[in-house]
Write a structure and sequence with these properties.
About 75% of the residues lie in helices and about 0% in strands. By secondary structure, the chain is mostly helical. The termini are far apart.
Length: about 325
């Protein structure tokens, strides 16, 4: 008998069928993968295309008739009405809302994540979710009745202005800040807390140094989201801040008096017969888009700076660590 040691085995019908099955299965998986990625690309285009269309259209209309006097004159100017009062009022509203809502929301998120019992936490989270679902115009009307109208006969002499607007819109954004803070803190690894406890560190020191720092990107995201909401709201501000054509740099006077803001210009100036007011409405819309884009850039920069020493930074940036 001839020796056959080292000779390649002849393909059988079974091995040929197995190879064909594997090849067919690989082809089906490639087709499914291509279909999935194609569907994702189409879905992304359906989401991004209307956004780009709106943003590009708003910026194009604003740039086509842009005049720098919109930033140097208030709307009461007789020579060339502008939006200086609305720009200053918008940033003042945003700053106050972020401070008030941020203090309450971050404190609430820390309490829910670290100190709140589970049963009580479910109740508070449910109440927060219900509050986040209340329409902003309803909160504005409640603020108008309770703060603007309700305090008139009490000797406090409240009226339209910054203070009722700060309170109402802060109530609107608190649930979002609370949720983002709680989620960010809960995502901090439990090993951080266990290591701090084994070293005998106090709970306050652990919270400040080992928990809040890794959670800072999520907290900052919540604050930026709150700032964007405060910039883009109209209905609650009409009920509480009302409007003022004049630029007022006094917080004391603005707290109990009307104040300008950009969303009012977009809402109201398009209904005016003057062509110049229509131009101002387009300018106000463009400024709102630019402010929101700047908020997004600032949030990304802050997150990058706070996480520059993070161990997983190379992986998050798409680079392999050494």
């Amino acid at each position: 008998m001839a020796a056959t040691t080292g000779a390649a085995p002849l393909p059988t019908e079974a091995t040929t069928f197995t190879e064909r099955s594997r090849s067919a299965g690989l082809g089906r998986r490639k087709m499914k993968n291509a279909l999935l990625w194609g569907s994702c690309t189409i879905a992304l285009a359906l989401v991004v295309s209307p956004l780009l269309w709106i943003v590009i259209g708003v910026i194009a209309k604003g740039v086509s008739h842009w005049q720098w006097s919109a930033l140097t004159h208030d709307h009461a100017s007789a020579s060339s009405p502008g939006l200086l009062n609305a720009v200053i009022g918008t940033f003042t509203l945003m700053a106050g809302i972020v401070v008030i809502g941020g203090v309450i929301g971050i404190a609430g998120g820390i309490y829910l994540a670290e100190y709140c019992p589970e049963g009580k936490g479910k109740l508070l989270r449910g109440a927060s979710e219900v509050l986040s679902g209340v329409p902003s115009i309803v909160l504005g009307y409640v603020g108008f009745i309770a703060l603007v109208v309700g305090f008139k006969g009490t000797g406090i002499h409240w009226s339209f202005g910054l203070l009722p607007a700060w309170i109402v819109v802060a109530v609107l954004v608190v649930p979002y800040i609370t949720k983002s803070t709680e989620v960010a803190i809960r995502n901090v690894p439990t090993a951080y807390r266990e290591g701090a406890e084994s070293l005998g560190l106090s709970s306050g020191f652990t919270l400040r140094k080992l928990i809040l720092r890794p959670a800072l990107p999520g907290i900052v995201t919540g604050l930026i989201f709150a700032a964007a909401i405060s910039v883009g709201e109209t209905a609650p501000l009409i009920y509480t801040a009302h409007w003022s054509d004049h630029t007022n740099f006094s917080l004391i006077h603005s707290a109990f008096g009307g104040v300008g803001y950009l969303t009012y210009g977009v809402f109201e100036f398009l209904n005016e017969p003057s062509a110049h007011d229509h131009v101002l409405a387009n300018d106000a819309a463009m400024m709102l888009v630019v402010i929101v884009l700047l908020l997004i850039v600032v949030s990304r920069v802050l997150v990058s700076l706070t996480q520059r020493y993070s161990p997983d930074r190379p992986q998050r940036l798409g680079r392999s660590g050494k």
